[in-house]
Amino acid sequence: MKRFFLILHKFTYLPVPKKLIANGEELPKAIRDLPLLGLFCGAIIYLSSRLFTVMPATGAAAAMLGINILLGGAFLIRDLITVADGLSVKPLYPPNVAVQSAGNFVNAKELAEKQRRFNAGPAGLIWGMVWIIGLYFLYLWYFRSNIISNIAFICAPVISRWLMSWTIFYFYAVPPAWLHRNFSRRDFYIASLLALLFVLPFSRPALYMSIIVSFLGVYLFATYRQRSVGALDDSCYGAVCAWAEILFLLGWMTFARFL
């Protein structure tokens, strides 16, 4: 559970007592719990969607967007903006490891601070707004429709975070590739099993079609990035998760009308 609290602290703005958080060096191993984090976030969004039905659709959609941002959307959009601008964040290193940069050693605390900084250019701002507005209208579509199941709000974070773990495992990463090199095949299998267990109870054609849509979108992005740049950096993982959730919800709400 300490590893779960580590990624809860790392990828959301929820307060977590420090004594419950695992050592930062266990982050690559904790990645296998990303589907569990998705289930946790998805359950909160699902319950919120039920509570907000008494609100006007526009207000309910805005409230859902705010909850999503609190539960990790802010971290995802930061990475999305970074990738859209063609920039990269400082690569992750194990905690307490000195890193030589321009002849100077930088401690782990300074590296952690740099991880939270990013420059937003025109392209990044445009794509960031596209993601926010797109997610808002998907929530608005749900509240104004009577045929879309809110089960999608549970499955979308699970699948998007599983695809994030798959991207970390499968594609080449920019050195030192700390997450990629220490996220083993066994860890990925565990993440896949967790994702399967979490979405299997909601089996339906719309679910499988939505998974295919989000998988293809992630695969095309990661493949293009690898061919054009040579490898994925750490900001690509958050961007993958952000777009995977959008694609899953879009696929679900589209196929729910026909299947």
How would you sum up this structure, described in words?
This protein has helices spanning 2-11, 27-30, 34-51, 57-84, 108-115, 122-144, 152-170, 178-182, 185-199, 205-229, 234-255, and strands spanning 99-101, 104-106. With 259 residues, the protein is an all-alpha fold. The protein has one domain (26-92, 118-255). The protein starts with a helix and ends with a helix.
Termini, distance in Å?
Answer: 38 Å
Strand content: under 5%
Helix content estimate? 55-70%
Poorly predicted runs are: 100-106
Descriptors for this entry?
259 residues, mainly alpha
Layout of helices and strands:
Layout: H1 2-11, H2 27-30, H3 34-51, H4 57-84, E1 99-101, E2 104-106, H5 108-115, H6 122-144, H7 152-170, H8 178-182, H9 185-199, H10 205-229, H11 234-255
Antiparallel strand pairs: 1-2
Compact overview of the structure:
This protein has 259 residues and is mostly helical. It has 11 helices and 2 strands; from the N terminus they run ααααββααααααα. A two-stranded antiparallel sheet has the order 1-2.
